[in-house]
Amino acid sequence: MADYIRIHPENPQEKSIDQVVKILQNGGLIIYPSDTVYGLGCDITNLKAMEKLARLKGVKLEKSHFSIVCNDLSHLSQYTLPIDNSTFKILKRALPGPFTFVMNASRSLPVAYKGKKTVGIRVPNHAVPQLIVEKLGNPIASTSIYDEDEIVEYTTDPELIFEKWEKLVDAVIDSGYGDNVASTVVDMTDGVEVLREGKGDIEDYL
Questions:
Q1: pTM of the model
Q2: What's the rounded Cα separation, in Å, for the pair 7 and 119?
Q3: Which residue among 72, 120, 163, 165 has the highest number of C-beta atoms inside a 10 angstrom radius?
Q4: Model pLDDT for residues 142-169, shown as the tens digit of each residue
């Protein structure tokens, strides 16, 4: 049974954040809020947790495309190949924000990402995931939680999310209603190409 943890979206309670961090350190899966939809995540350095995340999504880990959620751009050099100044300026203007940037992956990615040529980088404009990552000391792997209802593609109500996922994950964070529009996915590996239209408009930052 998952823990149901209420955390204030703007002033997160440190004790609750510590509780979430401990769950992640122990290889747990969490559902957490962001500036777009609620996400499903785990510690990117924990291979067993990553395998559990892949199983839950019904994909093989080596074929998965889990985003890497950071709290700022300081992890970029660790997980991506060097980028030029113009690319960095776009990222700096757009993040934190509702974007997932697909970048060329470096060789120093955690084991679960080995062999991947690209990686999606996300810095949500939301205090809760930012603080979780900061306290954990490294990013979390993430994927959106889909809803089978075709009209509401993403579940927005934390209580309903808990009902559905309580036996599948280790914690569900309630920070109020989420959005039902996912992040905009932008490929930055060779120029700027929008792969999926979402909440953010990259044109505003070019």
A1: 0.95
A2: 29
A3: 120
A4: 999 876 666 667 789 999 999 999 999 9
